[in-house]
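Record type: ASSEMBLY
Status: queued
Input:
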Amino acid sequence: MFAEAFEIIWQYREGFLTGLWVTLELSAIIWIVGITGGTALGWAAARHPQNWGKFVRLVAFILGGLPILVLLFWLHYPAQAIFQVVIDPFITAAFTFTLVNIFAVASLVREAIADFPGEYITAARVCGLSARQTLFKIQLPIILRQILPGLLMSQVVMLHTTLFASLISVEEIFRVAQRINASIYKPVEIYTALGMFFLAISLPVNGLAIYLKHKYTRNTSER
Amino acid sequence: MLRAEKISKSFGGNHVLRNVSVWLKPGTITTLIGPSGTGKTTLLRALAMTDLPDVGEIIVDDQKYIFPLMPEQKLLPSPWPRVTAVFQQLFLWPHLSLRENILLPARNFPRANMDAELNELIDVLEMKAFIDRFPNEASLGQRQRVALARALMLQPRYVLMDEVTSALDIEQVANILDFLPRLRERGIGILLITHALNFARRAADTVLFMDHGQVVERGTVELLDNPQTPRLQQFLSLVKAAS
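Status: finished
Output:
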C-alpha cells in the first residue's frame, strides 16, 4: 500500500506539489498573522479587560460555538452575495481561518496574562529589576512556558482545518488528491499519500510541542 | 532612616492601618509582633512600598513619598532595592533555579566580590545541597533561606522580612540568629515580623507590638518581660500558654 502510495505521489508529483504549496501558503498566512495578531489582541485584552477583554471573550465565545465550515461557507456565499462582491476563495479561506486563529491565540494569551501571579512582579520590583527586565526575564518566560505547547498544538489543528478550503474550490492538497482520485480511483493509496504529507508537517510540530511541554512545563507547585 | 509617618490604609472600609508611625534605623534590628490580622504584613508592605498607604508619608533616607501620591511624586526615584522585602509567601520565580533567583537581580549591582558574597551566604544559610534546584524541588525552609539570600545579595540598606524563619528548624534559626548581628554590623536595618518571641528576644534591638492597626507599644526587648499595656500583657500570656 505504502509503495503504491509513493508511486502515486511520484506520478502526480507536480499536482501534489502545487497543492502542497497552496496548503503551506494558506497555513503560513494563518500561523503568522494569527499568532502575531492574536498575541497583540490577547495582550490588549489582558491590559484592558473592560473593553478589549470583553470584546475578545465575546467574539471567541461566538466563534467557539460556530463550526468553522459554516463560517467559511457563510463568508464565501451569502456574505459575498449580500455585498455583491466576488472574492478569490483562497483569500476568503485565509481570512476565515486567520480570524479564527487570531481569536483562539488571543484567548490563550489573555488567559495566561490575566492569570499571571502579580506577586512575581512585586518580588521583581522589590529586588530592583526594571520594568523591561521584569517583562523579559520574568513575565514572558513564565507565560511562554505556559502557552507554548498549547499554542503549537492549536496551530497543528489550524493546519488540518485548511482541508475545508477545498470545499470552496481552493486548489490545496486535499482538492488535488480528490481530483487525482476522481481520475484513477485509488482512494486507499491516494488518501494514504495525503496522510503522509500531513504527518510530515504535523509530526515535527507536535513533537516540538511535546518536547517543549516536557522541557518547560515542569510541575511548579511548591511543596 | 526608613520612616513611616501617620500612615493609614483601608481595604474596602476595613481600616487595617490607623495613623501608624514607625522608624527603622540602619544597623538596627526591629521585630514586629502582634496577633494575626492586626496589620503587621500590611505595615511591612506599606514600608516596602508595594502596597501604598492611603495617606501619610514614607521617608527613605532623604527621599520623602507623600500619600496619596501626586503626579509629580510618581517621578521620584524608586526605593528598591535600597528597601527590599522578603515576603511570607517568598515569591521565588518558578522558572529559574534557586541560584538564578539569587543572581538575576544581584547582577544589576555588579561588584568584584559577588561570588565570594554568594558563597558566604550559601555557607551561612546551608544552601549548598539544593542551590541548583528549582523552587518546586525545594522545601519551604530551603526556599525561605534562598529568599533571604536573594534580598541580602542586593546590598540593601533596609530589609523587611515577614515570618522568614517559620519553617526553619532550631539549628537553622540559630544560624540566622548568629548571622543577623553581622548584617547589623554592615549597617543594614532589619524589620522582622515574627511570632517566635524567643527569636524576637534574641535578635531584636527594638520590639514593636501591633494591635488593631496601631503600634500599641514600642521599646527594647525588656518590653517582652515588662509589658506596659494590658493588651501586650494579655498577648504575651496567651503566647506563653500556647507554647
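Annotation: The first helix of chain A runs from residue 2 to 11.
Annotation: The mean pLDDT of chain A is 90.
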